[in-house]
Amino acid sequence: xxxxxxxxxxxxxxxxxxxxxxxxxxxxxxxxxxxxxxxxxxxxxxxxxxxxxxxxxxxxxxxxxxxxxxxxxxxxxxxxxxxxxxxxxxxxxxxxxxxxxxxxxxxxxxxxxxxxx
Length: 117
What we know:
- It is a single chain.
- This protein starts with a strand and ends with a helix.
- It has two domains: 1-53, no CATH class; 57-117.
- Helix 3 crosses helix 5 (90-102) and helix 4 crosses helix 5 (90-102).
- It is elongated and about 60 Å long.
- A hairpin with a 5-residue loop joins strand 1 (2-5) and strand 2 (11-14).
- The chain has helices at 19-28, 38-47, 61-73, 79-86, 90-102, 107-114, and strands spanning 2-5, 11-14.
- By secondary structure, it is mainly alpha-helical.
């Protein structure tokens, strides 16, 4: 079983399935839990002690969209949990979530709007 994660860790996670797990997938569409959600994939990366990327642009579209995805996947997820999963500070996680609702974007998109380009 393989999970590809290219936004925060840029890595593939692989896990060998047991024969019983493979039969359960084929017969019942019952998948193992590790890779069922993006949040679980990120938690796996942290558990394996991978370091999240450090983004040059704090309001990178990739970070904004990932924060949105995590909130959409689990609406009650806290800003602190999102911060941990993305490898950012809680205050930046709050800004990433606010960027979603207020229409903010990365610095270059804000600059283009300011210049009316």
